[in-house]
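#struct-help
A.M.: can someone run this one for me? Single chain, 276 residues.
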Amino acid sequence: VSYKYVHMSVSASIQLESVSTRIVDELEPGDGASFPKVGDKLLVHYTGCLAATGRCFDSSRARGHAFTFTVGCGKVIKGWDVLLLRLCKGQRVKLHVGAVDGYGAAGSPPNVPANADLLFDVELIDINEPLVKEGIRYRKELEDKARREVEEQQERDAKAAMASEGPKAAAAGPKRPRESDESGSGSDSDSSSSSSESSGAARKRKERKKDKKKEKREKKRRERKEAKKSSKKEAKRGRKKEKKKKRDRETVQRSVITGKRLKLDDSAADTEGRAP
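D.P.: on it. Structure tokens below:
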């Protein structure tokens, strides 16, 4: 399969050093019209694997947040700086990046060894994404991540409940075959009781989490209250000090004025006692 990329806006200072650095396959076509230029801000989703073993060393999809960077300015590995300029908006491709155009002889410990060729699954989501759109996207990513974490926690709780029920069932021994409708209803009641026990344990865990959160909120509230009280006390002390300084200044001024008046009175008395 051969692909033609009409947009080749690559700066002269960035040149690929490995012939193996190339676009291997196109997974999804883009709009075919919007291509990035050097200095544009790109928004991408990617998954990076080692070409030798296929082991994933990095993934924005796993983190739940798309990756943004300025293309053609050395912010990322050289293979990306060159190859992503050939993609159009919405296009998803598979890239092979040679070691010299990737992390080179130094690698990126501990995930990428030295002189390792890399495979990337990259999707160019947007070019120069507006700030409003970026804020909406970021909030949605946070909501999706929180939802996934809740679902994963629920799955882990269910597995733990099943694992705890396994030893109990083994200790109880094999179940007797049902002889009548009454025995069948008894087994149904046992299963319902076990499910109710697991749901009760889940409720207790939720209640403990709520209590912990409540304690944290109360602790923060008390700390804020104490900080407010201490700040008020400091402000009160400062006001008292200012008042004391003001009184001291007024006392000094009054003493100075009184001394001047006494001098004036003495001089007046001297002049009255003298003959004209």
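A.M.: thanks! Strands lie at 22-28, 41-50, 56-59, 67-70, 92-97, 118-127.
D.P.: also worth noting: Residues 92 and 123 are 4 Å apart (CA to CA).
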